[in-house]
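Exercise 7. Predict the joint structure of the components listed below.
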Amino acid sequence: MEFLIQLLNGVQYGLLLFLLASGLTLIFGIMGVVNLAHGSFYMLGAYLGYALSTQFGSLTLAIIGGAILAVAFGWALEWLLFRHFYERDHLDQVLLTFGLIYIFEELRSILWGDDVHSMPIPDLLSASIPLTENLSYPVYRLFISGVCIALALALYLLIAKTRLGMKIRAGAFNRDMTEALGINIKLIHAVVFALGIGLAAVAGIIAAPIASVYPNMGSQVLIMCFVVVVIGGIGSVRGALISALLVGLVDTFGKVWLSSVSGMLVYALMAIVLLWKPEGLFKQ
Amino acid sequence: MSRVKANIEVLPRSVQVLLAFGLVALVIFPFSATDFYIQSVTRMMILAIFAMSLDLLQGVTGLVSLGHAAFFGLAGYALAYLMPQNVAASLWLTLPLAVLAAALAALVIGFFVVRTHGIYFIMVTMAFAQMVFYLFFDNKALGSSDGLYINFKPSVVLWGWPMMDLDNKTTFYYFVLGALVLVYAFLRRLLWSPFGRALGGIRINEQRMRALGYTTFGYKLSAFTLAGALAGLAGFLWAAQTGYINPELMGFHMSAHAVMMVILGGMGNFAGAIVGAFSFEYVLEVFKDLPTLGSIDLGKHWQLWIGLFIVLVVIVAPRGLLGLTQSWRGRRKAGDE
Amino acid sequence: MTTHSFTRRLVLSRSSALIGAAASGALLPALSLAQTGKVRVGLMLPYTGTYAALGVAIENGFRLAIDEQGGKLGGRDIEWFKVDDESNPAKAVENTNKLVQRDKVDVLIGTVHSGVAMGMLKVARESGTLLIIPNAGFNSATGALCAPNVFRTSFTSWQTSYPMGKVLADRKLKKVVTITWKYAFGEESVAAFSEGLTKAGGKVVKELWVPFPNVEFQALLTEIASLKPDAVFAFFAGAGAAKFVKDYAAAGLKGKIPLFGSGFLTDGVLEAQGAAADGLETTLHYGDGIDTPRNNAFRLAYAKAYKLQPDVYAVQGYDAGLLYASGMKAVKGNTGDKAALIAALEKSKIDSPRGPWTLSRAHNPVQNIYLRKVVGHENHVTSVAAKALADPAPGCKM
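Solution:
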């Protein structure tokens, strides 16, 4: 029975990771832009959500309001900065987003301070389902898992099965050619980028009730997200989902069975996968 | 897809003059500075060595490593283990052993990671560095998260005769300056040697090099090991100077710091790495020491200023600070050599 | 430009031979200033990052103590120097040197993070500068690495966890599972609790570890549920503590398997924890609701000055101010005679909001450790878990 519960824990954590990494899957995976500021967008989303939920008193409104603001912010950022970096070296993107991390961290401190905050779980979702005599499972976590599955499906359908998805993939593969074919690649890039940032921020808002809102919350998430996207294979939504589940399971069972080395397990996993399949599990 | 940038390998006259002036400035600096500033510049020189070692890997060979600090920190830990509690160990023993430890680690890790390419290489180097980090962070026997002290500076004794007293800040400064100049000269020589030319070729087009008959795996591994060894030299000097080693010195932030310094200065010619290290550290200090204007403590928000600075440099100087000297002479298109 | 910043400006240019020599303190003859010039106080605290709120609380407390004494130390005015330690151990030595070598401070106050404090300690031991630690609780600072010029006004990890062992054993909760982050402070806390529990006849059935700073606890909560211990002892701090307590309650364990911890589990994060923390008992050297005139006056003064409620970190900073001020008063502001100042500090009796305390031979507070219970939004003191507890200071040769 305990094994089954740990399995559930692993899957749920994996789905959470997929949610957190979804924005990166789009921006880094699909568009090929190295976005080290992904964790910062996650943090900004969480703080924004906190501010909105205390203002409106409702998580749903916070999510909707936060999503709109985040997408708008992403659009503006793309137009202002990132648009000029698609053609630039990966390393320039590394440096740019590194600078952005510093900027966002300080902006957060100026706007919202340095304290630890929590966001209340809406009453509808605040119950816990008893699993054993001692242990219950919070409904909110199941809710998050549900959101993740829906999101994974939506992303997959978008990228793989729609014309827009096709254009996005074409544009990532060969920008000039796609433009020559008459497709408005600038608009598509802007849309995908804004969506990616929006996803990162919304992930922050949705996860905040169980994760808390605190300084530096982005940096811990950042490395995990990159690990997930890379193990799965850059460019593959399906790969990102499977690798997120894999990482979730390895982390969960690692904590229980191999606790003395559990810190390194995820990295060891990534190293092993990349040495076996140097371009990730599901490279496009 | 991004295009491969042409590196500035032949240093333009202006940069050469700059470097010469810089060397003179470094040589006479201790005569008019107090201990604190001598130590600060020593630290910057150590970081310059660290940056140059990464430049060999990143700028010349095109292998971007987000785990380079692992070798930096490992050499520091080697010194910590070799230094007894009550008496100073010899430089002749500790320095080669520390550098060797870093080189061995680089050889082993490199053997695994050099098979990967591009972004995967970046991630795998980070993964291995994180594993090394946790190995030290999690183990009491290795010092745990609080780190270890190094109680003495290495002693420099030749046939019973004390050559240098590294406890003297000025002596240590010149020792590091000497190391900096030697490493720079060695790497510049290497850049133009057949080995260095092959590395450059691998950066630009590895397939072509293989078609020409080069065993690129061996070249890349050698570059990785050499870069690791030089990072170890820098790490040894750092640990000797501060007397305190902590797992953070092999952590992600330290590796990212190195990557930033190299890109900032301009890659592939080692002079850029030095410029990047010095300017980044100097600018950081300036921002942290900003005064309070009215009710706003500008220095407190140093993260904002350094972030803006980095973004500005990336936009305005696509080939790093050293690349700015090129654009004064009119535009040159970046392209494959 | 402020008057002293010219001496702090470094002009370094690679293309010109202009090298600025900054020699702030070095030009001033040390002896003549030892009694009359301004006292140079150096604060090295986290002003950015995860612990920024703690850094601010400590500085606020310190300044409040000094202000209450008339804003002077031993009759002398104060010149303040601040350095942001960024909670980064890799920069600890260089940041400390800014205060010790560049600004030539008379006293060093810092810091929060133990790894950074290790670096500060190294510089302090080598330079002889007076160091007062207002938080970092790693045992060795007043243990194996103790030094005459190093004082602490906070706690050791041992002090805050050891008493809980006896508390649990006395309640017949003998089979306990511990859970914490796998890093030095977590390990020290669990070891101390273990010692206390075993001495009182209990047993730690399993030690659970979470990699630092991972906050994904579900797997281990499931494990706790299946182990069915009598109680759980946890050490976490900050956001991790907030999340752990909430996750514990959400997993239904609250009420079924009682949770205990050292005070950091609930200090500073009660607002974030909400109802999940109700009734949680912890041990710490302070509690918000200590109902003494001293504590009430302190809390009022702090709230009035800073529009914030004080926490244990503010108290520690406050006590650091009290300690230094009393030492300076005793030597009439003469920072030149280090031995006299140290002797004066050692003899100090601090009338602290937490209760009066003195210093052990290893320069750590000998203080009451309170058992507190979360009631409402407060850590309410229910009893004294250990009276006048002195850290054993293993390895200290003073």
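Discussion. Chain A has eleven helices and two strands.
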